[in-house]
């Protein structure tokens, strides 16, 4: 492999995309969305002491959303699109090796996804000026977001080399990404609801005459609850959960998260704990008795590295398969594959 050959392939791929007017229209729409979301986020988090933390988390998640929505279209036909247009075979006849072609295609796909992050940088800077974003939160969130961009791009390039038709490879990429983003949520919701157990909730009885709670008695209310603690692991591979779970978050004085990262992290960490007895104490100023979100996070285990590892194995397997399928000379090709 040669760095110059890889750069040439990537440059050719990017040149083809930059010639399209639709690419600039897409980035323009993204800027408009970012502007609207940023303004609305400042309005939502204006009541906080440092609204920048909440705005920053929303913008980063929006960038990830656009990446998983758009990147499959841009990377899902990287190889079979050239094969169908009869431009892949001439490149394979040059000094560029299969590795040069594959890595060049991957770099171009990552660059197109990274363009959304580059466009979002001014809005991230505005959020940082709002305060409340520690350096660790900024660094880790950007690194994890960049890793997710690489993973989605590798999945698309992998399917483009394994599937003969661009339409089906793009569809397969979308289905795979949808399985990670939406399928994990469906599996978590249905799996937890399918397995239920009985627990008991306690609350103070109320005096019918005075309307005041009776503070020396408890009433028990048995009921069934889902066992999400048995299926929470499926959420580990969700890109948004990986981003939120890996990013350090801040909590307010009451132990509640101040941004979207923290809210998602508290949600997935809470699912790790088995259902326990709940007590709503009307005689206590705090009402419900139980751990705060900050205590819940502290008493749970992170899962982001497991989810990211699953994504890397999936993307790496598809990319390796596409590498083997693209290698020349090829012994077998799918029926109807155009060579030159």
Describe the secondary structure blueprint for this structure:
Blueprint: H1 3-18, H2 21-44, H3 52-75, H4 80-84, H5 88-92, H6 98-129, H7 135-162, H8 166-194, E1 196-203, E2 219-226, H9 239-246, H10 260-270, E3 278-280, E4 288-289, H11 293-298, H12 304-326
Parallel strand pairs: 1-3
Antiparallel strand pairs: 1-2, 3-4
Helix pairs in contact: 1-6, 2-3, 2-6, 3-6, 3-7, 3-8, 6-7, 7-8, 7-9, 7-12, 9-10, 9-12
Roughly what is the average pLDDT, rounded to an integer? Answer: 82
How many individual β-strands? 4
Q: How do the helices and strands follow one another from N- to C-terminus?
A: HHHHHHHHEEHHEEHH
Approximate shape? elongated
The total number of structural domains is 2
Q: What can be said about the biggest beta sheet?
A: 4 strands, mixed
| Discrete helix count | 12
Distance between the termini: 23 Å
* Low confidence ranges: none
Report helical residue fraction. Answer: 55-70%
Strand order in space, largest sheet = 2-1-3-4
Task: Give the class from helix and strand content and strand pairing.
Answer: alpha+beta
- Strand content is 5-15%
Specify Rg, calculated over alpha carbons: 25 Å
């Amino acid at each position: 492999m040669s760095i110059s050959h890889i750069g040439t392939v990537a440059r050719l791929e990017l040149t083809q995309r930059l010639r399209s007017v639709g690419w600039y229209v897409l980035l323009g729409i993204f800027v408009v969305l970012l502007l609207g979301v940023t303004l609305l986020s400042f309005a939502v988090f204006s009541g906080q002491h440092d609204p920048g933390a909440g705005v920053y988390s929303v913008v980063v998640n929006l960038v990830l959303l656009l990446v998983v929505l758009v990147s499959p279209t841009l990377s899902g036909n990287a190889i079979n699109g050239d094969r169908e247009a009869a431009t892949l075979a001439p490149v394979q006849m040059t000094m560029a090796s299969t590795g040069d072609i594959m890595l060049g295609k991957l770099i171009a796909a990552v660059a197109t996804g990274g363009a959304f992050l580059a466009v979002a940088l001014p809005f991230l800077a505005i959020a940082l000026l709002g305060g409340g974003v520690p350096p660790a939160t900024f660094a880790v969130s950007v690194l994890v977001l960049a890793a997710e961009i690489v993973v989605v791009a590798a999945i698309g390039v992998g399917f483009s080399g394994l599937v003969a038709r661009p339409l089906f490879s793009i569809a397969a990429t979308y289905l795979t990404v949808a399985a990670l983003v939406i399928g994990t949520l469906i599996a978590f919701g249905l799996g937890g609801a399918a397995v239920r157990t009985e627990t008991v909730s306690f609350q103070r009885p109320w005096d019918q005459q005075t309307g005041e709670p009776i503070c020396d008695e408890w009433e028990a209310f048995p009921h069934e609850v889902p066992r999400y603690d048995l299926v929470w692991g499926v959420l580990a591979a969700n890109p948004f959960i990986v981003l939120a779970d890996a990013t350090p978050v801040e909590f307010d004085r009451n132990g509640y998260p101040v941004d979207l990262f923290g809210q998602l992290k508290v949600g997935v960490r809470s699912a790790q704990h088995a259902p326990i007895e709940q007590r709503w104490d009307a005689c206590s100023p705090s009402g419900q008795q139980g751990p705060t979100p900050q205590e819940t996070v502290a008493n749970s285990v992170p899962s982001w590295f497991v989810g990211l590892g699953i994504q890397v194995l999936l993307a790496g397997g598809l990319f390796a398969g596409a590498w083997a399928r693209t290698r020349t000379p090829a012994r077998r090709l799918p029926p109807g594959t155009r060579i030159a």
